[in-house]
Amino acid sequence: MRSRGLFVLLCAFILVVTPAAAQSDNISAAEAKAEAAAQRVGDARVKADAASSAYLTAEAQLEQVNDQLVSLAAVVEQKRLELAALKKDLREFAIYRYTSGGTEDSASMFSAGNVNDAVTKEALATMVGDRKADVIDKVKNAQAEFESESAKLASQQKQQKQLTDDLAKKSDRVGAELQALQVELDGLNSVVAGLKESERIRIREAALAKARETARLAEAARQQKAADEAAKKRDAPPAPPTPARPTFTGKFVCPVPGASFSDSWGQARSGGRVHKGVDMIAPSGTPTYAPVPGDVTFGTDGLGGRSWFLYGDDGNFYYGTHLSRFGPREGHVSAGELIGYVGMTGNASLNHLHFEIHVGGRGNQVNPYPVVAQYC
Prior knowledge:
By secondary structure, the chain is α+β, with helices and mostly antiparallel strands. It folds into two domains: 4-204, Helix Hairpins (Orthogonal Bundle), CATH 1.10.287; 270-375, Glucose Permease (Domain IIA) (Distorted Sandwich). It contains six helices and nine strands. The protein has helices spanning 4-14, 20-99, 106-109, 118-127, 132-235, 369-375, and strands at 278-281, 287-289, 294-301, 305-312, 317-326, 331-333, 338-342, 352-358, 365-366. Strand 8 (352-358) and strand 9 form a beta hairpin. Helix 1 (4-14) runs parallel beside helix 5 (132-235) and helix 2 runs antiparallel to helix 5 (132-235). GO terms for molecular function: metalloendopeptidase activity. Residues 219-248 are annotated as: Disordered. Keywords: Coiled coil.
């Protein structure tokens, strides 16, 4: 089995910065090895479970053999006590025969090899008529059976003990194998994690480098554009005079009180357009009001979304767009009357009212920021 140190060295070697394709191949190869190791760990775990189960079964069987030996020993002990009692009766009978003038040799009656001879059996038959001699034979038979069964059980116990020991060794061996495989799997998983982290860092650094390059190119393009525009201005005829600020015959009302805004007049927009209004930023649903009295109509288009068109009594045209909802009615309205709600319909990425002022009628747009800054 590979050691953990080998995996650490392997991980350190592979984590050297490599091209994207090679790094991806390294990750795939490491993942394949980890999956194969995981399969081996699973197989080894099945073997370990089977070995453990077999060991426990053998151990239980050994306990049963030991219980059988104990039970048999108890039976034989009972028979031994019965035999001892009969021998005591024989001894007393022999003493009686001897003291009453009998001719039997009492010593020979008590000898171990003479317990079944004719004289002893005759003495026993004379002493008791309840067939105690047969009982003695049964006791001896029981003793012989005990010795035979004891030998068998001892042999079985020895075999079972050997089997149990072998299974215990096998269980330990399989467990060690499983542990070694788990170490291998942990090492491979560490390699995979290291490779993925290296790839994540490489991708992030590549993205940062690309972003820096994109920013550099954009700044270069901006500077070039500024230089080109400056050159055009130098070569262009003088600009016409700036249109005069609109005049109001009555009080001008802020279209979105509390909104935030800045002077974005002339800034570039999508499609080569430039910004010709002021963006009044406020939460969706904020009311918008008629800045002057006049006739208001509602409409919708793809660029502005929902819009209101106000033809002021002062002769100027006012335009508000990106509404979430229209006001309650069209027609003539007073200054400060509700005519719509802030939203982000059309070509918009945040909730705001795009507000325009056309001096003297629709089409003559002027920068509305100074007016909005004064009244809002």
